[in-house]
Amino acid sequence: MTGQATSRRQVISALLDALRTDGGVRVVTGEPGCGRTAFLEHAARSFRAGPVWHVRAGPAPAARRPSGLHTLLRAAGRDAPVPGDGSAGEALFDVLRTAAATSPLLVCVDDVHRWDAPSRAAVGQAAARVHAAGVRAGLLLTVPGHRPVDRELAALPRLRLGPLGPADAARLVDDATDGAVHPAVREELVTEAEGNPALLLALVHRLSPAQLGGRRALPRPLADGEALAGVVGGCPAGVPPEQAGLLLTTAAAVRATGEPDADADLVRRAAGAGAAAPLPEVLALAGGRLRFHSALLGRAVYAGAPPELRRAAHRALAEALTDHHGVPALLHRSWAVPGPAPVLAAALAAAATDPPSALPRGLRRRALTRAADLTTDATERAHRYTAAAEQAVLAGQPSEALRLLDAARSRPAPASSRGGAELLRGAVLLADGPVDDARESFLLAAALLAPAGREAAATATLGAADAAWSAGDAASCLEVLAADTAPALTGATARPVPLPRPAGSGRAGTGGIRRADAPDPAGAAAPREATLHDHRDGMRAVLMGRFDRAAGPLRRVVERGLCGDEPELLLRSAAAALMLGEVTAARRAGARALAAARTLGSAALEPRALEYLAYAELRAGHHQLARTHAEEGLRTASRTGQRNTAAHHHAVLALAASIEGEGELVAEHAAAALRTARRHGLAQAATLAQWAAARADLGAGRPGDAADRLGPLVRPGSRRGHFAVWMLAVPCFVEAAALAGRPEHAAAVVEDFALWASCGADPQAPAQLLRCRALLAAPEAADALYLRALDRHEETAGDFERARTELLYGKWLRRRRRLREARARLGEALIGFERCGAHQWARQAAAELRAGGAAPVGSGAGDLSRLTPQQLRIARCVAEGATNREVALSLSVSTRTVDYHLRNVFATLGVRSRVELVRLVGQAEKTGAQL
Description:
The protein is mostly helical.
C-alpha cells in the first residue's frame, strides 16, 4: 500500500476535485508538528482551476478590528471595510460568492485559532453558508489538534491529518540524512516519533553523524523533554497549579498503561482534584476516561516535568489504586523510586508473568522492562529483558523486541539465558529481517542451549533450517538438519512461548524459549519433543529427495498437531501437510491455528496462520479464498511489523491476481514482494512473485515474455528459483515455451518435473505433467496425452488447471481442423475459467471459439458479470458509499490501483459517474445478479 504522504496528496486531490464542482469546507486539524501548514501550502500550489487566497500562519495585526478578516481580504487584494457586528459573516460570504462567480476559488487560512473571536465567528458563518449553498468556493482552515476546536468553527466538517506511515517516515529520515543512517537507527527514530514529521526531524537533527551511522550509542531517552517541547511549542502556559498537577497525573497514568486514556476518578483522586474541578482545555473527558487531545502533548508534559514531580505523581497514583499488588500499582511504585530496587523488581516481574492474569501483552512488556531496569543481578536482569522481548513479539512489536534483546545481550549472563535470547532474536529476524542473520542467531542459540536442554536446542536447529529454507539455501538447510544437535530430545520440562515466524509452503516451524526451571503441563513435553524430532527428520528426507522416508514422520507431525489446539503444533502440522501435498489437512490445521491465535490474543501468530491458509488454498486451486486470507494476512502482518510475512502475502496476492487477469495488481503485489525479498534474502517469496508475473504475461497472450521471465527460474543454473517453488512453475514455463515456438527449451525440465510429480507432494502435478508432455509431443501422441491429462484432473479439485488443459487441447484441435471437438473443449474451458473468475483466460477461450466459428453469447452493456472479481469488489464498495481511499484500505491495494480499476469499471459498464454506478449495482442486486 502507499504511504501516508501519498494518501495526503490523494486527499488534497479529492478535495480540489470537489471544489471545482460544488465547493467545500474543511477544518484541518492534527497533532502539533503533523504538517498542517505543509498540507495547506501543497493544496495552494496544486489548485489550478482559479484564484487562491492564502493567509499564512502568524499573529494577526491589531491595527483594525476584526483583524483576521482584514488579513484575509488583503490576501484577496481587497481592502474594503467589513462591518464589525454580526453582519460580518454575511459580508464575507458575499465577497466569496462574488469572487467564485466566474471560476472556482480556494481560500487557505493557516492557524485560524489565532484570530480574534469576531473574526473567527465571521469566517465560521461565511464557511457554513458556502458549505450549505454550494458556492464554488473552497475553504481550508487549519487549527491545532491539542485543544478543542473553537465554538465558532465547531460545526464545520473536519479533516484530521494522521501520522506518517512507517515507510514514509523512513523515507523522510533518508532524505534528511542523505541516506547516511544505519537501518536500526532509522527504525528506532521512526518508532520513537510515532509518525510525527516535526518530531522525527527534530530527533534526526539531535544526533551526531556517528550516532546516525550506528557507531555511537543513542541518547536515552531519545525523545527527551526538550525535543518534545520544541515540537509542541512548550507545555501549556497559564495553567493554574491544581490543573498543572492534573495534567502531569494524567500523563503519568497514560504512561503506565500505554493506553490513550486513563480512569478519570483515579486521576482526580491522585491529583487531589474534585469531580467538579474544571479541566484544562488540552484534556478531554468521555465515558469516565481522561485523555489528551494530543498524545504528543501528553508525552511533552511528562518528559518536561522535574523528576521529583514525576515520582510524586506516580506515588500518588499507586496509593490511589485499590489493588496495591497489581501490575499498575507496582509499575507506579517502580517509577516513584529513583534507583535499583530488587525486591520491587521481583514483585513486578512475578505479577507480570502470573498466568491467570488477563493482562494486555503491552502492559506485561512494560512491567517486565521496568523490572529489568530495577534489577541488580545481571543474570536475572538479562532474563527479564528477554521475557519483555517475548511479550513485545507477541504484541506485534518486533523493533521493540530487538531493542530489549540488545539490552539483554549487553549484560553478562549464563549460556542458557544468552541462548534463549538468541533463539528469540532469530525468530524476530525470520519474521522481519535478513534471514541469513536469523539463521546465525538460531545456530548460536543451538550451541548455547545444547548443554542445558535438548528440546530447546532442537527448536533452534529447526529455526536455522527454516531460515536457510526461506533463503533458498538447500545445502545449508540440509547441513543444519544433519548436524543433529538434539538426537534424543529428552530432559526438557518447560512450556514454550510461541514465536512469530513467516510460514509458507513447506517451511518448518520454530518453537519458543523458556527457562529450564519453568513448569510444564502434564504430558505436554512428549508431543512437542516427538514433533520436533519428526519434523526435522521429515524435512531432511524431503531435501534429500527421499519422499518415501519423509512421509512417515511428516504425517505424524500432521496428526499430532490436529489432536490439540496449541498454535505452534498446529502450524507445524500445516507445514508438514503442505510438504506432503495434503492440502485439506493443511487448510484445516491453518484454520485451527488462526482460531487458536485469536483466542490467545497473539497478534504475531495471526499473519503466520493466515499465510499457511493462503498457501494451502492456492495449492488446492481455490485462488479466491487464498486471496481473501492473504488480504487479511497482509493487513495483520503490516500492523505487527512482519515485513517478511507481508512479502509472502504479497506473493500470494500476485499469484491470485495472475489467475484473475489483473495485470496491474499482479505488478503491484509482485513488486512489493520483491522489494522485501531482495533486501532480506527471501528466495521463496521472490520466486513466487516472479512466477506470478510470468503467469500474468501468459494469461495476457504474451508467451514469449513469460518464457523469458520463467526460463532462468526453472532451468538448471545459478539463477534457478527456490528449490521448493521452481517445480510448481514448470508447467507454466512449458506452456509458454511451446506457445512461443521454443519447445526445445522445455524438454529437460519436463523430466525433472516428472520426478516431482511421482513423489505425490502436489495433487495437480500428475495431470500437469501429462499436459506438458502433450505440448511437446508429436501430433500422433498428443491427442491421447491430453485426454489422459483430463482424466487425471478429475481426481483433484481446482477449475483453473483443468480449464487450462481444456484450452490448450481445444487450441490443438482447432489447428487440426477438428472444429466440433475443439468447440466442445473450448466451451468447457470458457465455463471453467468463468467459474473460477479467470477472466483474462476466459477471453482467450472466447477468442478461440470465435476463431473456430462459434462466437460465445456476450453480455450486454451494463452487465456486472463482465467485470473481473477485483472490479466487482470495487464496484460494490463504491456503490455502498466508500471513497477510493477507503476501498484501497479494505482491499490492501493502493488508491492508484482503485482509480485504475474504477475507470475500467466505468468503461466496461458504460456509466459516467458514481451515481450511475450506484443505480446499476442496485438494479443488479434487485434482479439477483451476482456481484
